[in-house]
Amino acid sequence: MRSAAEKNITLDTTHIESDVLVIGAGGAGMYAALEAARAGASVVLADRSLIGRGGATVMAQMTVAAALGEQTPDRWEHHLSDTLVAGRGLCDERLAALLCEDGPRRLREMDDWKVGWAREGGRIKQAHAPGHDRPRCAYVDFLSTGPAVSRTLRSRLNVVDGVRRIGELLIFDIAVHNGEACGATALHLTTGRPVTIAAKVVIIATGGLTGLYRRNSASCNMGGDGYALALRAGAELIDMEFVQFFPIGHLAPRLVGMDPIMWDPFRYKLGGKLLNADMREFEEDYTTPDSRSDGRYVLTRDLATYAITKEVEAGRGSPAGGAYLSFQHVPEAEIRSAFGPVVDRLAANGIDLARQPIEVAPIAHYHMGGIRVAETMQTRVPGLYACGEAVGGANGANRLSGNAITEALVFGACAGRAAAQSASQGLLSWRPEAAHSALDLLRSAKDRDAPNLAAVVVELKKVMSEMVGPFRTGENLRAAAQAIERLKAEIGELPVSSAEKFDPVLIDWLDLRNMLLVAQSVTLSALARTESRGGHQREDYPMSDDNWTVNQIAGFSSEKIHLGRSIPSGDRTVA
Amino acid sequence: MKATLTIQRGALGEIPRVESFDVGFEPGQSVLDGLRALRSQADPTLAFRFSCINANACKECMMLIDGKVDYACTVRLKEGVTTLAPLPKKTLVRDLVTEIAPPDERL
């Protein structure tokens, strides 16, 4: 066993200073960096991947909700009302109101920056997505919303002063001194060098945790690392049990070059029939008037997920273990006119919708829970902020479609502004000793006997998918908690390394350290909530319970997660 | 079905070595699917870049596949040998990873 130092790994630490450090360069992080720089702050925008290429925003293919009122009169209060209904009593109304009120301003700014919202007669087109009371969702054709938003923000970053972009920087610890965040510690992947960053304000914009699940619609880097960073720095998490599953994620045949949630827009525009193994439509079997149905033809996300899961359990699933989705009743010309070049991309995958059904199944899509923040996006740790999907609370127990990118832009802008203001009033409070334990952890990395950590990641995803998926029981959740403890013991307390530069083994170990803590927070929160509501469905507690109209708060001390409860924050005049 | 991935390995400054791995696959699966399976089933030290997995949105998994520059996430696995090598015109980091970040986004 040789330590990193013995292998002559360069351990010269690179040190960087800036007013504001933004961790994560998806939609929220890029917007935060732009806004902080606009307010005069110097910014480091860091991402473990390339800048503006990872995360969830770039993957999004469909809509962005905001009360623009371009084609149909609208007010942000109507959007708020829909958001609160979808959130089933658990929304932080202050955050939800901020999302809805500031959304139109952000979408118009993106329009000024030439994102290319689809237009009709000179006005921005807005689609009517489920759960909204009117057409409210802007988009970029064809299925290009996320890439267009990412490209637009990347282009802005190219022309503004004050933002230093650093890719391939894996931040694994927030530096805290006297209870205040003062920077962070990172591993630079391509050189293998440790990096410390001193900052007056640190913003976590690392997105959600759907990477904990085997099938998900996010980039590989969304294992919830920002939640673990926040917990260890002393911040709290809120509503970690609420994971949104998207019912008709692509399952088979293998489809490459496309986002797996792409079938949603197809259903909006063309209908589409969900069929079981007997080629029989089954959605109506599950539309008995109960709290899970909105009574319309298209099932809500949670009910459709339920219907497909139950059909598979009853032995009526498709060969790959989901349901068939068929557009065979739609004329070929209509498919072509609705989706243009996308039809050719499907053909390259051997898919001809006019002639064959495809297979779909629920897929982890979004996380409603996250880091607990005030209206300024500040956590309870001074100097530590969060934004985007990393923030919990705005969407309560269930997110309305179209709110995710709006949230990224609005909360990003808000955090960037607040961070710049805070930075203008303070000095760097960096102390080298605030990074000592993190640097020691990195230096203790050894090329030692260890299980295949890539296989441990696969096993964790299996545990989360099978036991902490859309439908849960106390028994399964307890088994999951035990499995997570076992995996923690397997990876050990010291990092494993295999090479100097771009070491995937060390990356897996650092990821697993975070993923296991975050998986534990989801599992324990889900076990404690003995009711069913929105994205959290307990088969042993199938009804919602008014006593549970509370948020669950998770904190971390003495190496343990502690859960508490809190009444959802009311409107802004009360707060 | 079985694919054989013949991969050029090693870090900058080392003499490159070629290693072959067999990986089972179903029709339609991508080279990136094969590489990911290979890490969890055979050799976790193999280095390659990717972020978005499916969507061809991140453009990080570019490499030399059977002598041609392409994306590992869109090229399909096939029966028989597929050769993989790092991008020839970029500075090598290790295995299939090269320095592809824009210069102003480096440390």
Q: Summarize this, please?
A:
The complex is a heterodimer of chains A (575) and B (107). With 575 residues, chain A is of the alpha/beta class.
Please, could you describe this protein's structure?
The complex is a heterodimer of chains A (575) and B (107). By secondary structure, chain A is α/β, with parallel strands linked by helices. Chain A is built from 14 helices and 21 strands. In chain A, 59% of the residues are buried. In chain B, β1 and β2 (17-24) form a beta hairpin. Chain B is mainly β and 107 residues long. Chain B starts with a strand and ends in a 9-residue tail after the last strand. In chain B, the strands form two sheets. Chain B has a five-stranded mixed β-sheet with strand order 2-1-5-3-4, covered by helices on one side. In chain B, strands 6-7 form a two-stranded antiparallel sheet. At the A-B interface, α4, α12 and α14 of A face α1 of B.
